[in-house]
Amino acid sequence: MPKFVDPVQRRELIADGLFAIVLRQGLGKVSLRTIADETGLAIGSIRHYFSGADGIVRFALETLVERVGERLEARLADMLPRLDAGSIDHGEAKELTVDFLSELLPLDETRHRESVVWLAFEEEARTTPELADVFETAVRGTRVLMARVVESMIGRGVLRAGLDVQSEAETLAALIDGLTLRSALHPGVLTPERARDLLAAHLDGLRA
Asked: pTM for this structure?
């Protein structure tokens, strides 16, 4: 009986192989041959799912965006009911908000890997129009999520009333982008833990 191959798992394996190559050698070293070597798959098997390396790069970027987005949504789904229940004070609410936003910072091995890979993709997208739309969608989605969080925290009295939701969302997104860049690529200059502290300090300035 032929062995069943789960196409979703196989695509995920290929994406993870690409991530590993980018982390060690950079995006410029990605090819069907290097992905085959990394994953232990035959090039023909990879071609069954993707016609070439460019298609894998796009799929891997979409996979990265989806994984981070799912974690953010899961954290938000856990956080908001706890705030609505009214059983925690403003200090605890702020910590929950910091924890939520810190999902985008390289605070553990998984998030560090994702941050480094994301930055490599971002540089590639600057000169590769085929990736630009994925990045634009992801960036816009992050801004919408930030605005959702800010508006929610204002409505619950965690952040002070009168804040410009869109401006604060843009500021938060830009702050997290900068903290991620520095702490992922230059942890000796800015440790991930210090990045989290700076994010918390910024939110302190917005508290009610």
From this structure: 0.87
In b/e form, how buried is each residue of 88-126, taking b as 16+ CB within 10 angstroms? eeeeebbebbbebbbebbbbeeebbbbbbbbbbbbebbe
**What does the alpha-carbon distance between residue 192 and residue 102 come to, in Å, rounded to a whole number?**
10
Q: How far apart are CA 74 and CA 10, in angstroms?
A: 25
CA proximity to 118, closest of 99, 142, 144, 98: 142
Question: Does CATH place domain 61-204 in 1.10.3720.10?
Answer: no
111-136: pLDDT as tens digits: 999 999 999 998 888 888 888 888 88
The residues, ordered by sequence, that sit 6+ positions from 191 with a Cβ below 8 Å of its Cβ are: 183
14 vs 41, 61, 83, 174, CA distance in Å?
A: 9, 12, 40, 31
Domain ranges of the chain: 61-204
